[in-house]
Amino acid sequence: MNAYASPLERAWYIGLRVLVGLVLAFLVLPILVIIPLSFNSDSFLMYPMSGFSLRWYEDFLTSPSWQQSLKNSLIVSPAATIIAMALGTLASIGLVRSDFPGKTLLMAVLISPMVVPLVIVGVAMYLFFAPLGLTGTYTGLILSHAVLGVPFVITTVTATLQGFDFNMVRAAASLGANPVTAFFRVTLPLVAPGVISGGLFAFATSFDEVVVTLFMASPQQATLPRQMFSGIRENISPTIAAVATILIVLSTLMLITLEALRRRNERIRGARTA
Amino acid sequence: MPTETLSLSAPPNDPVVGLKQRLRRAERRRKLLYGALILPLALFLAIAFIWPIAALLKRSVDNPEVHGALPQTLAVLKHWSGDELPPAEAYAALTRELTAIRGTPELGTAAKRLNRETPGYRSLIMKTARKMPLDDGVDPQGALMSIDSRWSDVDIWQTIKRTGSPYTAFYMLSALDLTIDADGDLAATPPEESIYLDILGRTFWMSLIVAVCCLLLGFPVAYLMANLPQDKSNNLMIFVLLPFWTSVLVRVAAWIVLLQNDGLVNQALIALGITDAPLQLVFNRIGVYIAMVHILLPFMVLPLYSVMKGISPVYMRAAMSLGCPPFKSFWKVYFPQTLPGIGAGSLLVFIICMGYYITPALLGSPQEQMVSYFIAFYTNQTINWGMAAALSAVLLAATLVLYVFYARRLGASQAPAGR
After folding, report:
1. Do the Cβ atoms of A124 and B55 come within 8 Å?
2. Which helix (H) or strand (E) holds B178?
3. What pLDDT score does B53 carry?
4. Mean pLDDT of B331-349
5. What's the pLDDT tens digit per position in B11-54?
6. Which terms does the UniProt entry file under GO BP (chain A) (predicted)?
């Protein structure tokens, strides 16, 4: 913006910023609005608030069904993430380092769980796992969540490996490291940011998953989002606002971690190309 | 390494070729070894994902009910012309088989399946099965006809024959509001029964509106971010990424709180004098649109931003230095370069929206439910898996076609960004 701008350009300059400000407010304000309501002392989810209280957090921490769902989420999501990370990282290294006809197609198939509508995944897995006795079990739920997390690990880890110099592995081998040692001592530490952010994506996917869970889980395995889903559907109470606030804090933490990883990765890349 | 000692003992006449071959072989072995790393995941997905989906799709043409319940009757009917009443063995076989399966769930599912083809069939089968077994020495044909006169109706037998094949196009055709009429020709389902084209059309239409709204809101955001200094645009990016990372259920809950009758939005509208009485903003289409746009907007902004980031500012400057007014040069020079991003973002939003379940389920009335809802409905409520599978097949086909389109677009859009 300079002093010679015409009034029209000035209007455009200001108008664009106002418009973008409004859109960003539309994106963020609804999320922020629910936070104060979780501290409301009466049971109505509306403003003006009548007073400050922590009773809804107490309700969350003492209600058996919310506690069970929190426990279930803390069992299912980490387990699914570990499976997705282990299988996904191995496969990503394989994908980047090997060459065979149909590789692009295979890659497309490996990331297809991200594309197929969740209801289809849910129904398909339900009908397939039910005769095997795996619906309504932790095993079945963990496996289904692992499937959904895999594409995120594949995309982030292959992207990180694109910038990985495989001469490092050759150097390790020439210095006498066997492939397994070279993997754990050289490759893994260097691609760790990619693996961790892929894992975070997989974790977030599982931790927020409700559609496939609706089909695969019995009430005993109801996860936190599943519990929220029925809570919202039946009668939306301030306890939901309290859970929402906790989840917002959690997602902010994940966002900060990811951003730090991204900046670290950028710094390393910048240092290498400089 | 053993390969090196081997290469020393290679035929002395052409050591270079021998070494090359060995190198190529070692290289191939290495690639094969790395390829093997993909196997565990490929196996896992094949068993836990591809197979279930293939099995689901197969159900859309499966027709096991009558085929499984009345195999002998069907074997007799196979050689029956269908013009006059079937032979006496058909009556005998049917009596035998009804006797064998009466009281089992198999009879119920077969009766239900026949009833879907010809209304009233269920009661006919149940009524007949209750009279089983027949007394010894009774002629099955006469007995069946006296139990219900419909057993002397050729059409009733044709229905058994028709629904008895192990595969059927019935569900797939129904999903497109088509049916096979009595003459065996393709025909449109009668209007009072045809609902699926409506649902598919609604799904497409709602996804289109959401994609257009996301584009209109996302374009200015991406444009400003791409043209600000990096540190400022990184800060703006947080506003896009925070909702992106926030649980969808949190956002749905937030919108219910905001849009309800005495929510903040209605309070503000009344305070501003825009309306006297609260507007119905949630549990209808408006609520679904608002929440869907909110949820999917980041999916529009991110690809748009990455494309715009790769557009060099020199083209705009060149156009303006040649005398083109700013708005015209924006429209003629800058905007066409953003088209790959617009295509990628819109397709992505459209694809995700088309398969969405949570938002319409929680924020919509029955008039807002899209294909996904009906797939879940047929699976959980009416246990009509054939119909659920057929609708899944239609939705999956639409998704995959658009996804292939998207993957091509993305390939095109990443080229300038990577430069």
Report:
1. yes
2. strand B178-180
3. 97
4. 92
5. 555 667 788 888 888 888 888 888 889 999 999 999 999 999 99
6. transmembrane transport
Type and span of the H or E element at B186: strand B186-188
Contact B226, B302 (CB under 8 A): no
Rounded-to-integer distance, Cα A225 and Cα A66, Å: 10
State the smallest CA–CA distance between residue B335 and chain A in angstroms: 16
Overall average pLDDT of the A213-220 stretch: 94
Q: How far apart are CA B266 and CA B404, in angstroms?
A: 42
How many C-beta atoms surround the C-beta of residue B7 within 10 A?
Answer: 16
Domain boundaries, chain B: 2-59, 64-166, 196-418
Question: Which chain A positions have a beta carbon within 8 Å of B328's beta carbon?
Answer: none
Please list every residue in chain B whose beta carbon sits closer than 8 Å to the beta carbon of residue A126.
379
DSSP B367: G
Please state the pTM of the whole predicted model.
0.86
Are the beta carbons of A224 and A73 closer than 8 angstroms? yes
User: Which residue in B29, B250, B296, B374 has the most chain A C-beta atoms within 10 A of its own C-beta, making it the best mutation to test that interface?
Assistant: B250
**Residue A77: band (very low, low, confident or very high) from pLDDT cuts 50, 70, 90:** very high
Element holding B32 (H helix, E strand): helix B15-36
Tell me if B310 sits within 8 A of B417, measured CB to CB.
yes
Residues of A in contact with B24 (CB under 8 A): none
Query: B236 is written with which tokens?
Result: 């703006």
Q: Is B167 helix (H, G, I), strand (E, B) or coil?
A: strand
What is the spatial distance between Cα A81 and Cα A11, in angstroms, rounded to a whole number? 49
Contacts of B76 (CB under 8 A, 6+ apart): B86, B87, B89, B90, B93
Instruction: Pick one of 3.40.50.11810, 1.10.3720.10, 3.40.640.10, 3.20.20.150 as the CATH number of B196-418.
Output: 1.10.3720.10
* B-chain residues near A187 (CB < 8 A): none
Query: Does A122 sit within 8 Å of B41, measured CB to CB?
Result: no
Kindly tell me the sign of the dihedral angle through the C-alpha atoms of B104, B110, B112, B115: negative
Cα–Cα distance measured from residue A129 to residue A144, given in angstroms and rounded to the nearest whole number: 10
How much of chain B, in percent, has pLDDT values that exceed 70?
Answer: 93
Compute the nearest-CA separation of B223 from chain A (Å). Answer: 9
Quickly name the fold that domain A65-273 has: MetI-like fold (1.10.3720)
Confidence of residue B411 (pLDDT cuts 50, 70, 90): low
Chain B residue with CA closest to A119: the answer is: B372
Q: CB distance B55–A127 less than 8 Å?
A: yes
**Neighbouring C-alpha atoms within 13 Å toward the C-beta of A105:** 3
Distance from CA of A78 to the nearest CA of B (A): 17
Identify the pLDDT of residue B415: 34
At residue A41, φ and ψ (nearest 5 deg) are: -85, -25
Give the number of A-B residue pairs with CB atoms closer than 8 Å: 244
Q: What size, in residues, is chain A?
A: 274
Tokens standing for B27? 């290289």
In the block, residue with structure tokens 């519990």: A227
Q: Do A122 and B376 touch (CB under 8 A)?
A: yes
Terminal-residue alpha carbon distance, chain B: 41
Cis peptide before B71 (omega within 30 of 0): no
| Structure ipTM | 0.90
